[in-house]
Design goal:
The protein is built from 7 helices and 8 strands. The protein has 219 residues and is an alpha+beta fold. A 6-stranded mixed β-sheet has the order 1-4-3-2-5-6. A two-stranded antiparallel ribbon has the order 7-8. The radius of gyration is 22 Å and the shape is elongated.
């Protein structure tokens, strides 16, 4: 009898901790994998950039991703979605990358550097030769803020970058830049999407602390 009672108590604690440490999903859309991008992100000239990923819950984990969605002729917004563990883990390496693009109803789901949708698109900018002789992509004045939303900083893609990127796309391969400047280990990504890399995200929380906090709040 005592063992049965103890088992019931443990199950209640298990379910209670799982609930209290995992926020409600009410109003949060579910993105199972890349096949569901078009159901979550709707619009044209759209690029969705993964800017954060985390898991909540103690024993039963729930996985979330945060995207910065840039609409070429509209606004910029940030959207949090619930996702599968497999998809969350798979895309950790793609932090700061554009995972989904929609251009005139032509969709791409190959991970590419942010802004890949707009480079070479004459509606948004043009190629200009600079003093060094290189040809670089420049946005029109009306779109001057797009590089800031993309997290480019001082980065400016040149023709060589563009050609290498399109070559990888033709092979259905992700592209992290000629020198891996983008993605989880990319210098540009770490500099302009720092929240994901802060020490607080990697700290381990002891069970004792969670247990005490749970009982303080609920009892």
């Amino acid at each position: 009898m005592y063992r049965f009672f103890l088992y019931v108590i443990l199950v209640i604690i298990y379910l209670g901790l799982a609930k209290v440490l995992s926020p409600t999903e009410f109003g949060v859309q579910y993105l199972q994998n890349e096949k569901n991008f078009s159901k979550v992100f709707k619009g044209n000239q759209l690029t969705a950039i993964l800017i954060d990923s985390h898991a909540t819950g103690f024993l039963i984990k729930t996985y979330y991703q945060k995207y910065r969605v840039i609409y070429g002729f509209q606004n910029v917004e940030e959207i949090i979605v619930r996702t599968s563990k497999e998809f969350a883990v798979k895309n950790i390496k793609n932090m700061g990358m554009s995972l989904y693009r929609n251009n005139e109803n032509i969709e791409e789901i190959i991970p590419l550097p942010p802004g890949s949708l707009y480079i070479g698109n004459r509606e948004f900018g043009q190629w200009k030769k600079i003093k060094s002789g290189k040809v670089k992509w420049t946005f029109y004045r009306v779109y001057k803020n797009i590089p800031r939303y993309l997290g480019w900083g001082t980065f400016s893609p040149d023709m060589e970058f563009y050609q290498k990127m399109r070559a990888e796309v033709s092979l259905n391969q992700p592209f992290y830049g000629p020198n891996n400047e983008f993605g989880l280990n990319g210098k540009i990504t770490k500099e302009h999407f720092p929240h994901f890399f802060t020490e607080q995200r990697t700290k381990k929380v002891e069970f004792k602390t969670l247990f005490i906090d749970y009982f303080k709040e609920n009892f």
